Amino acid sequence: MGGDINILEVISGKLCPKGVEHIAEEMIAPLRTVTTTAEVLCGEAPLVSVRTSGPVPLEKVPELVRYISSHRVEAPVVCGQVLIKNVLHLGVDVISTRSIAPWPCCNLPSNS
């Protein structure tokens, strides 16, 4: 037995060009768009759902989820709001996927 087997040559059937491209990317450098939650301070809900603005390397997903989970945002949060820019220098932002109104009687100390 000699030589490497090209997996794309082994796959058979009707494959569209995008399917072949996706298989190659998945085998060489798998990427994922991440969805998780972030803590909301003084909001009507304790968590807000978030997603990355684009895919990230699969091996970075656990570190990214830990980082986002440790991040706190202050209400109000608007759907589509960028909560973390260029998270972990991966070239993607973390964006809220829902709005969270502020809790009326919550007063955080000001930073001034």
Please describe what this structure looks like.
The strands form 2 sheets. Strands 5-2-3-7-6 form a 5-stranded mixed beta sheet. A two-stranded antiparallel ribbon has the order 1-4. The longest helix has 12 residues, at 17-28. The chain has a domain at 30-104: CPE0013-like fold (Roll), CATH 3.10.530.10. Helix content is 23%, strand content 23%. It is of the alpha+beta class and 112 residues long. It has helices at 7-10, 17-28, 61-70, and strands spanning 31-32, 35-41, 47-52, 56-57, 72-74, 82-84, 94-96. It is elongated, with a radius of gyration of 20 Å. It has 3 helices and 7 strands, in the order ααββββαβββ.
Keyphrases for this structure?
112 residues, alpha+beta, CPE0013-like fold, five-stranded mixed β-sheet, 3 helices
User: Are there runs of 5+ residues with pLDDT below 50, and where?
Assistant: none
> Considering DSSP H and I runs of 4 or more, what fraction of the residues is helical?
10-25%
Largest sheet data: 5 strands, mixed
SS strand fraction: 15-25%
